[in-house]
Every structure is written in C-alpha cells, then in structure tokens.
Amino acid sequence: MKVLLISTYELGRQPFAVGLAAALIEGRGGEARCLDLSVDTLDDEEVQTADAIALWLPMFTATRIALAALPRIRQLNPEARLGAWGLYAPLNATALREHGVEFLGAAECEHYLAGFLMGQTGSPEEATAVALDRMEFEVPDRAGLPALDRYARLRMPDGTERVVGSTEATRGCKHVCRHCPVVPVYKGRFHVVPADIVMADVDQQVSAGAQHITFGDPDFFNGPGHARAVVEALHARHPGLSYDVTVKVEHLLAQRELLPVLQRTGCTLITSAVEALDERTLSFLDKGHSRADFVTAVELCRDNGLNLQPTFVAFTPWTTLESYADMLRTLGELDLVGNVSPIQLAIRLLIPRGSWLLDVPEVSDLVDDFDEALLGYPWKHPRPEMDALQREIEALVDADARADRHRSQTFEAIWDLASRYARRHAPGDARLHELPPLPARATIPYPSQSRGTAERSPPRSSWLCFESSSRLGVTLLAAPQLTPF
C-alpha cells in the first residue's frame, strides 16, 4: 500500500514528524513516500498513485498552504484516504473536512495515523486522535525527504553557512501560556523522546551532511535532566556540531546552572518567546515572567557566552504607542537589535479555535465570530491607529527583507515610522520621538531561506519568518496570496 506524506511548511526545516510517520508506515508493511511543498512542487504522479495521503500541519502557515493544496490533491486523486495531523489539524477540523480529510490527529498520534492510512484501524466517523498517552517512538525515516542542503541554512556572523538538521527531544509543553496553540492540544503535558532515538536521528542527519541541529521542542528545558543528557551525548559523539534550542524566560532563570553546559556543548542560539515587555500584556498571555526577568535572562545568556534571540507578539489588543516604543527603545538599550528578526516587530496576535485566551472576558468580548478563511477569531484594536501602524510596519519589513537590508536598518525605519505615528497621536510624550544611539551592527546566527523552487517557496518573506518562535499562536494582519497548485 502506497502512502504519501506531505509537509507543507515547518520553518524551513526537514520535518521530524513526517520522518516518524514514514518509519511507522514502513514498519506496518506500507510504502511511505514524502513530499515537502516548502522546497518542491506538488508531484501529480505521486498524488495520483497514492492509496492514502496525509498532510503535516504543525502551524498556521502550514495549514494555509495545505488548504490551498487540498483541492488539487482531491482533483488528482478523489479515491485516496485523506488525513491530517499536527497541532492545527483538530483546531481546523471544519475547514479540513470540507476538503475530504477524514483523519485528524494531534499530539502523540502517529501510530493512529499510520493505522488509519494503512486501512488497519479507524473509521471516518471516529477518525480523530488527539493522543496524550505516551507513545513508542521510532527513529524517523528521512530517506524520502528532500536533502538537508535544500532547506534553510544557518548563516553565521562571518558570512559562512551551515547545513541544518532538526530533531525533537520532547513534545508538548508543561506550561499553559494562553495564546499558544500547543496548549489546547497538550493541556500542560509533555512527553520525552528517548535519548537513544534522538541521538540516532542526529547521527543519520550528520551522515547526510548536517553541521548544525535545531531542537524543535516548544521548550527544551521542560525536562532539564533529559536536556542535559541529550546535549552531553550530542557533544561527545559529534564535538564539532553546533545546535540551537527554544527555552522560556522563566526556565533560563530557574535552570541557570545549565547555561554553561549549553555553551560548552555547542549551543549557538537560544530562542525565547518573550512576547511583550509591558506587564499588562504579559499577564493576559500568562507568560510566567516579568520585564525584569527578561532583562535578567539577557544578562545570564551574555555572561555565559550564549546568543539570545527574543521573539515577540508585538501587536495585541493591549499594545499602545507607548508600550510599542518602549519595546523598541529597550531592544536598543540592551544591544538586542541584531538579535531580533524584524518580522517579530510586526507580528499581530492570532486567536485560533480552542485558544485559552477566549476564557479571558477582556478577550472574548473583543473578538468577532470565527473566520474560517483567517483560521482565527478576528479582532480590532480599540485604537484604530495601532492596526494601521501594524499594517505599515508589516509592509516595511517585507520590502526590506526583499532588499536584504540589515536588521539595524529596518529597525531604524520602524522607529521612524512609529515616531511619526506618535507625533500624530501622542504628541505630548517625548520618549516616542528620539531613538537612543544604536551600537555597531552586530548580528547573531540566523536561518537563511530554503533552497526550494521559486514558485513554491513560502510566498512572502514575512511568512517565512513570523512563526520562528517555535509554534506560537501569532499571525500577520494581512493574509498573503498563495501560489496556485
């Protein structure tokens, strides 16, 4: 039985979950074939000859691309069983089922997915599996996926690039930040991927040319003992290999004794979902840290020779001109301008179906009815100029990305734009009208774009970058146009 697994987009990385599903299908006697629409076009013959097809939907962008591809998939092969799995599959069940998707899975669902696609378990009426029980992991089978050098590379400050592999040491998250799409699925749980599976996955990617590994865990320090064991083993086996992780601010503080371990074992970058610097927004999002905690985390990382990459949800219903300008000013004063991807300064909060933000009265009273096209609940800022500012910053960032401008140049342009809004809408606040001197144009390692075909690479630079904060619930105000399949 031939099963086609399709990844649409996962931050320019070769997807762990697709390789895992392929291994499980092969183990059941099936033939697993893989496509990745972030680097390849949809292969008509592969679709037409498949007995079953499943799409991997770990995030918003992937889901939008999948919904654009599904009509073509169904046209090419109306008889194939269709499935979808990942955080955004059950959250968008209505839209997916309208396109003929029968199986919807999330969390540790790959065994259920494999059984359904192979016709061994499940019926269309019962084909939903949000599996929170522990699963038996297999080493991902990556043989059918595009070569690593076709995905995004890590661009180093000296201009060199490293081929990037990716794996997962844990899945889910024990925290319940209200805006995060991990939360409606995992509900505060996480599962450890056995260290021997992680290392076997790393080994095969190093053999395939990987020079750097991205750990895709929503939070690498959910299991600090496991994290330490994994990086110690990685460094012992591949001492020249670098890696990056995602860690919450509160974990950077609570597990500060592990920071020297990360530095010693080859960590080049820590991404941390800071989201906001004003206490009111942090409280609504239930982030578990304060502005002062963020400053301490910056100092701890610097003291340990680690690059911290903060990510933000810059525009929320509670963002003001004052709080936005304060965020920009703080990044400048902390010498973090080169550490922040400019798209992070344009991101607008997405409220997807199932979001725990909807339990907050100040949010539920603000949103309109669910929009299937947006895949979220629309909202407008109480101050219309904030929505207008977000749109202009988004356009500015997109244009600068196309022109390959340095981050500091884009930052200065964003500050100038915000200042113009301030002079118009908050003329009495002098703090909004002058940017402190910026330091030299330092930069940190950051991902380059994938080497996919031009017509099927993610359609806008903003889409490529905006979900860089692991799998957080963020989106841009305007929906980019997708290339037809």
How much helix, percentage-wise, in residues? 25-40%
CATH topology of the domain at 147-311: TIM Barrel
User: Tally of extended strands?
Assistant: 18
Strand content: 15-25%
Produce a short descriptive summary:
The protein has 485 residues and is of the alpha/beta class. The chain contains 18 helices and 18 strands. Among the domains are: 130 residues, Rossmann fold (3-Layer(aba) Sandwich), CATH 3.40.50.2300; 165 residues, Aldolase class I (TIM Barrel, Alpha-Beta Barrel), CATH 3.20.20.70.
Secondary-structure map:
Layout: E1 2-7, H1 16-27, E2 31-36, H2 44-48, E3 52-56, H3 60-76, E4 81-85, H4 88-91, H5 93-98, E5 103-107, H6 110-117, E6 128-131, E7 154-155, E8 161-162, E9 164-167, E10 170-172, H7 182-186, E11 190-192, H8 195-207, E12 212-215, H9 224-237, E13 242-246, H10 249-254, H11 259-264, E14 267-275, H12 279-285, H13 291-303, E15 308-312, H14 321-333, E16 348-349, H15 361-364, H16 384-402, H17 407-425, E17 446-447, H18 461-466, E18 474-475
Parallel strand pairs: 1-2, 1-3, 3-4, 4-5, 5-6, 9-12, 12-13, 13-14, 14-15
Antiparallel strand pairs: 7-8, 7-17, 10-11, 16-18
Helix pairs in contact: 1-6, 8-9, 14-17, 16-17
